[in-house]
Amino acid sequence: MRKPYLPDDQGYLVQSYVRVEEAAHRVGRAAHAIADQDLTDAVVADVQQELAAVEQAELGDFSGRARQAVQLSRADTSPLQVNAAHDFLHAHPLWSSKLFEEVDPTAAAVAAAHWLQAAAEIAGEASGVSPASVVMEADNIEALAVETPTLVLERLIAGESPRRVVVDLVAGAMIAAEGKLPDPDGLVDAIKEARAQAEQYGPGDEELLAGLMPRVTPLDPARPAQDLLEDLLDGIRGCWLLYRSHAELGDDVDLDDEDADEEIDEEFFAAVRAEAEAKRERLL
After folding, report:
1. Which of 77, 205, 208, 230 is deepest in the core (most CB within 10 A)?
2. Domain map of the chain by residue range?
């Protein structure tokens, strides 16, 4: 920016193939044309602050100017950020604004996946429903995001770590955002399965076939980590709803007693906290 490529005596101009670098040269050429040293110094200082904020966010510090990084999705996580998100969920197992405002969304999703598995274990034990199916069952109580939390639960129960599942989903969505297929072979197999189901249940029904067709990614490619975090928190809420509904079926529960409702909720939260802490080693 201070020493940009300028046209030579014959009017030729060297341009960088690195897009960000060339953008900096363009700003530098504009500043050179304006010829105001104070303006150039101010622009350079602002860019230096922005770069420092990026480095700060990469180290897991989202204070000050680096806070804007919580709006971005990254296909990686900081253990410090994951642990911070875990602590936020320990304080508020259903939802905390701090998950969206103070930590990297991918790291927050890793912690949320861990807490979803813990909540599914508790709700499944109380309801007699398989932990992998608790969100689908809870969807009968209240409309919830079902597909993504269930997919995550299935992979976690199969033995994958929360970090691996979350990073894989976010990275896949980021690839899809570039117009590429994250898993071409898997997509081909899913399309064949969708066609087979459509032929079985409604031969020639184009609307049914379209509804069965798989998505390239279950997440919003424009904001995959945030979308995943929201769905996982919705899944935890589903576990709470299912636990509550089965607890309220007990003979000794007065449905009109608000204190009883609070007691049921506290039992659920205490059990989920104990489960999440007891198996914290699988968090990363």
Report:
1. 77
2. 19-68, 72-182+217-282
